[in-house]
Structure prediction request, 121 residues.
Amino acid sequence: MRIGELARRTGVSERSLRYYEQQGLLVAERTPGGQREYPEQAVDRVIRIQELFAAGLHSKKIAQLLPCMRDADGGPSAVATPRLVADLVAERDRIDRMITELVNSRDVLDDVINAAAQSRG
Prediction:
């Protein structure tokens, strides 16, 4: 499929897809005319990349992680190194800390909202 179709099917801009290719996250074949051609599996790959970016991982870490994942189901592969696993545990711990901080912030906002509502009422 061409880059425009991949962009439409994944909701990711063509510019981002070119960036993913630059970073080694996505591979495209080239037609004789130089246009990018992506395999069907690229849809799952792009969705997985987006999920990893949303989790706060940077492109270098994603490039290390992608070979350790199966695109179709997102499950683990046997090629994860102990170092990569340790790095991913650290990333998960960072995300857990962020979740805790966000929940605390939400609780503070709830307290302010409740206090403001009671003072009005």
In short: The mean pLDDT is 88.
